[in-house]
Amino acid sequence: MPGGPLAGGNADSRKDLMGLTRAELTTEMEQIGEKRFRADQIFNWIYFRGVTSFENMTDISKGMRAKLDETYRIGRPEIVTAQVSRDGTRKWLLRLADGNEVETVFIPEPGRGTLCISSQVGCTLTCSFCHTGTQAWVRNLTAGEIAGQVMMARDELGEWPTPSDDRQITNIVLMGMGEPLFNYDNVKAAVDLCKDEKGLNFSRRRITLSTSGIVPEIRRAGAEMQVMLAISLHAVRDDLRDILVPINKRWPIKELLAACRDYPSLSNARRITFEYVMLQDINDSDADARELLRVLEGIPSKINLIPFNPWPGSNYGTSDPDRVQRFGEIIRNAGIMATIRRPRGSDIAAACGQLKSESERTPAWKRRGEEHPRA
Q1: Which residue among 103, 145, 159, 179 is the active-site one?
Q2: Which among 55, 79, 97, 230 is positioned nearest to 152, based on CA atoms?
Q3: Do 79 and 93 form a contact (C-beta atoms < 8 A)?
Q4: Is residue 127 annotated as a catalytic residue, yes or no?
Q5: Which pairing describes strands 90-95 and 171-174: parallel, antiparallel, or unpaired?
Q6: Chain segment 282-327, per-residue pLDDT in tens
Q7: Distance (Å, rounded) from C-alpha 353 to C-alpha 344?
Q8: Beta carbons within 10 angstroms of residue 64's beta carbon
Q9: Residue 139 and which of 10, 297, 326, 339 are 20 to 30 A apart at CA?
Q10: Structure confidence by residue, pLDDT tens digits, 18-68
């Protein structure tokens, strides 16, 4: 694949410019004796025009392009598999330069398109209802690998140069594999690249960071990233949330919601989204709905009710649709927005809570159609 990490089966030793900020690109150019303006040119080509080859940077001299090509490359994650659901949802399994893999999902809807990106290989958390949580954490993604998922999706959807109108990808959500706030620095750097007006150019209100409740970093993210916030809540009692979302044992509900109340710029125009997976006979009673209203009192909120998406080996059932509707009515009757998320991409395991690297389920040699290595 053009711009991928491997060439002819050999690792590419050139330094990858993907993920570098404008300031970092400036430093690189100064180190090879180039003027500062060169960094702006390269930044535009990489992040606004989406090129993966220096040869295509036509406002740079041929000699300079050759010099750049000797020292640097512009990486992309390699697409291992690309699936399209019956409902139009697209899922890509992506291989990184070190052979690790992550998944990225694009959900098209009328008037908008949401790209769900990953921040870690595997996950540091062990939420009991989430398939991703059953995959052991391997490592954090770099800023380039996080932003590279956006670049790859724009490659696949033909969205270069960066469109200003009629975009297919209108929103980015950090709701894929991993806990973003356990990879804070790289996530922030990637978010900054996404927000750059001369690059990927996403409004901060079109970027949502989802966390299971890393309380110290929530306040920091609000001050430094200023993006929209989503909280994976899923329970209104600590004893239950300790089971569903074990990080709750470290930062219980009271501390988590206090951090939410302190989130900068919080208002009715910038509400926090609370994600609530609906588990049959676990957290879906009328009493649970009323307690949810009580604990969220005073926080500008909207609530996403997510019917549980089963996966092999899961021990939970999906709430009956009538029960989900009743739960939502209680919330809405109190004047709080409550939406029932329609499952998308479940036939290709792309729905909420289903992401897990295919590489862990199927050996790489088998996916490539090769004989067993020991054969």
Answers
A1: 103
A2: 79
A3: yes
A4: no
A5: unpaired
A6: 999 999 999 999 999 999 999 999 999 887 778 899 999 999 999 9
A7: 11
A8: 15
A9: 10
A10: 999 999 999 999 999 999 999 999 999 999 999 999 999 999 999 999 999
pLDDT bracket for residue 6 (50, 70, 90): very low
Query: 17-73 is classed in which CATH architecture?
Result: Orthogonal Bundle (1.10)
Burial of 199 (0-12, 13-18, 19+ CB in 10 A): buried
**Local structure of 107: helix, strand or coil:** strand
One-letter identity of residue 330: I
Phi-psi category of 265—alpha, beta or left, where left has phi over 0 and alpha has psi -120 to 50? Answer: left
d(CA 336, CA 265): 19
Per-residue model confidence (pLDDT) at position 347: 67
Fold topology of 78-361: TIM Barrel (3.20.20)
The structural domains of the chain, with segments of one domain joined by +, span 17-73, 78-361
What would the pLDDT profile of 125-160 be if each residue is shown by its tens digit?
A: 878 878 765 677 889 999 999 999 999 999 999 999
How many whole angstroms separate alpha carbon 176 and alpha carbon 165? Answer: 26
3-state secondary structure of 181: helix
Length of the chain: 375
Question: What predicted TM-score, i.e. pTM, was given to this entire model?
Answer: 0.88
Q: How far is residue 329's CA from residue 320's CA, in Å, rounded to a whole number?
A: 14
Residue 53 and residue 69: Cα distance in Å, rounded? 8
